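ok trying again, last paste got cut off:
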Amino acid sequence: MRVAMIGTGYVGLVSGACFADFGHVVTCVDKDVSKIERLERGEIPIFEPGLDELVATNVRDGRLFFARDGAEAIRDADAVFIAVGTPSRRGDGHADLSYVYAAAEEIAGLIDGFTVIVTKSTVPVGTGDEIEKIIKAKRPDAQFAVVSNPEFLREGAAINDFKRPDRVVVGTDDERAREVMRELYRPLNLNETPIVFTGRRTSELIKYAANAFLALKITFINEVADLCEALDADVQAVARGIGLDNRIGSKFLHAGPGYGGSCFPKDTLALVRTAADAGAPIQLVETTVKVNDARKKAMAGKVEKALGGELKGKRIGILGLTFKPNTDDMRDAPSLDVVPALQAMGATVQAFDPEGRHEAEKLLPGVEFKDGPYDVAESADCLVILTEWDQFRALDLDRIKVLMKAPVLVDLRNVYRPDDMRARGFKYTSIGRP
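nice, full thing came through this time. structure:
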C-alpha cells in the first residue's frame, strides 16, 4: 500500500520506517526543510536504537522517501497519517491541535479517490470529528474516512513496540477504512497481534487512559517509596511482592524521581482538562499530576540532606539528564527541575549524558558538561544518578571513590545495592530503601 506520513518527529519517523519495513511504500513529509535534507543525507534527527539502520535499509530498497511538499504523496496515498506534535497549550494545559488541523486543511485539498486519514498524533476525544468537519467543509465531494490509530511506542524500544505490539487500536465505523487498516497491519498477523476495532472517540480516549494509568502507577510506587523511607522498609521488595500479583503486574513499579518525557506529562494534563470540560473530573489523575510535579522539585532536597544540609560552594556531579535511557529526549525530564534547584542552593553542577548533551546545553545554563562519568566524578562532593543508562550500572566504584572529593552518592534510580555501597565506603542514599 502507499502511505503518506505527515510529520517526521518521533512518532512519524519511527512509524513511517516500520511501515516501509512491512513492505509498504511510505513518504514522510515535513515542512522543516533542514530536517528533510538531513534525512535525505541519512542523518537521523533523533536518537532511537536501530532507527538509523532501519531508515537506511528502506531508503536503499526504494520503500521509504522524504519530501517537504507532500502533494504527490498525499494524492497517491491509500492512507495519510497525521503524526504532528500536540504539545500542551500554554496557559490551560489543553493539547495544542493547531498542527493537526493545519495538516487536515492541507490533506483536504489533495486527496484523490477514497483515502483513509489516520490520526497517529495523541489527540483529545472529538478531534477526529473536527478533522472530518474540516475536510468536508473544504472538499464536500471527497471520499474519505477519518480513523484514530493511537501509538503506544516507548522511547528506546520503539521499533520493537511497533513490530511486536501488545495490541493495535483502530477507531472507525467505516468498513472500507477497516479493510485498509487491516492490510496496513497485516504483517503483524504472524504474531497474532490483537487488533482492537472500536469507535473513533473511544480509540482517542484509550490512548489517554492508558498513559494516565501508567503515570498513576509510577506515582503510586513513588509515594510508597516515601512511606518505606519513613518506616525503614524496602520499596523494591514491596514492588516485587505486589507485582507478582498478575492483577497488578511488575511493570512501572520502579521508584524514582518522577515521570517525564513527551507523553505522560502532557497527556495526563490534557486528560484532566478534557474531563473537567466534560463535567466528569478525574481526581486520581489530577492528584497524580500534582504529586509528580512536586516530587521532581523535591529531589534536590535528597542531595542537600546527603551533604549535611548545605549545598553552597559544593560541586555536584550528575549522571544522566534525559528523562529515560536510550533516548536524547529532554522533554519534562526530572533533570530540568533537579539541576536548577541545586544551582539555586549554591551548588556548581557538572554533568554527563550519553545522548542528551545537545538538547541539555540549551535547557540547562550554567552546567559544566563532561565527556564521561569519571570526568563527572572528578572533584565532586556528591555524585547523583539521575538517569539509569546502562553504562552507569557497572561503574568502577573504586576509581569513582578516588576521583571524588568525598564518597557521597545519591542514587535516584536504585541502580546499586545499599549494603554493597556502604561496604565500599560510600555514604549512599537511594529511593525507598533502608
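cool. The chain has a mean pLDDT of 96. The chain has two domains: 2-198, 236-429.
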